[in-house]
Amino acid sequence: MRENQKSVDAYKESIDLMPGGGVNSPVRAFKSVGMNPIYMDHGKGSKIYDIDGNEYIDYVLSWGGL
């Protein structure tokens, strides 16, 4: 499991600011797998990076803005 404490903290803060914490997709909400959403920071080519510095391959391919 990757370290994602910054994403957890961002989600907890955003719940008070936006409906659903700003997560508008059931897939992105990660509720069905018992996780919190991951907040992305930036992307380059086929890679995306979360606010914790973790690197992912972008298999979703532009499903929403970063």
TrEMBL record:
Keywords for this protein: Aminotransferase, Transferase
One example GO MF annotation: transaminase activity
InterPro entries from the UniProt entry: PyrdxlP-dep_Trfase, PyrdxlP-dep_Trfase_small
Known cofactor(s): pyridoxal 5'-phosphate
Protein name: Glutamate-1-semialdehyde aminotransferase
Organism the protein comes from: Gracilibacillus boraciitolerans JCM 21714
